[in-house]
Amino acid sequence: MPDHGRGQKVKILYIMGPTRSGSTLLARLLNEYRGVVSVGEVVSIDVALQSCRMQARSRGDARSTFVPNDAAGGASRRFSALCGCALPLQDCPVWGPIEKSVFGDPPDYSPWSWDAARPGLVRFLLEGSGRWVERNGRALGEVAESVYRELARLTQARIIVDDSKTPLYGYFLRHQPWADVLPVRLVRDPRGTAASWSRAKPYAGIDGGHLPAHAAHTCSVDWLKRVALADRLFKASPVVRYEDFIASPMQIATRLLDATGIEVEPPDRDHAGAVRLSTNHILASNPDKFERGTLSIKPPDWSKVLRTRARLVVTASTLPLLRRYGYALWDGPEHRSPPFRELVRRGSERGG
Ligand SMILES: [Zn+2]
Prior knowledge:
It is a single chain. The protein has 14 helices and 10 strands. The protein has 352 residues and is of the alpha/beta class. It has one domain (10-335): Rossmann fold, CATH 3.40.50. Strands 2-3-1-4-7-10 form a 6-stranded mixed β-sheet, sandwiched between helices. A hairpin with a 7-residue loop joins β5 (201-202) and β6 (210-211). α9 packs across α10 and α10 (216-233) packs parallel to α13 (308-317). The longest helix has 27 residues, at 129-155. It is globular and about 55 Å long. The structure holds zinc ion. Zinc ion binds next to loops. Zinc ion (ZN) is lined by residues 83-85, 87, 92, 94-95, 281.
């Protein structure tokens, strides 16, 4: 039985990278290994829980009392009130007790401020990474420690997979004395992420019922910012390309877990070699968390979705990093991209 006392560090596999890069699929596969739990985007714990409270309030539910924080505005339109187990977060056997023990009853979300957990890039650079971590290590660090220790205690997992994706929150986590973090950089062809964002996506539990579409240039800026920052802050951390992951999902998942140094058991597979997805307690993330049955990863063909102008915008604006990660300049859907020589590479081997 794992020891989750205050003396032992919490093992966290932290997935970072642009949105729509397949992190939810990777997290769901990792969640099937015994001893591993995927918990979604912990950085947004405050917004997701407030979305749940706001929607309860609009239904006239008695449990709608809470003290909002600076991230509350529009929370119910941006984040689902539902956990991956399909229950409202307050009724989930994992997030319900965590909300009570960490934020109180009725909850006060102000300790998890937007500014502390998700600072602007300019501010981060101006303040200096060391000073930012030191400032937030005291207030946010204490609350975060309670969240992750409760997650470990309630799930009895030896590895917690957090797919918050933002490099800055990963940087903050890595500098916490109570956390032992393996950062993983996930990268996808930016034309693939732009194609995924080009259509609204149905998402149960969000006011309005779907995530809105985003323009190609918005996706490019997000992609560039996150990939460049992760490159800079996590040079020696493993890199996984989405295209390689969908080609060999089990191989990638096992190699990442091996890199944590903790032994865990792989999931059972059916006669066709497929992994059955069980229920999960993924917070926020992508609506793929609700999928049930066999894990199915279909390589999408962005070249059929993305219009020529959008394709030009994304290709031109991400060019230097596009080539660095081995993506073709123009032709070819992502499943025809040349595979990496190694499925999971360490950045240090590239001289980074
Ligand atoms: Zn749940």
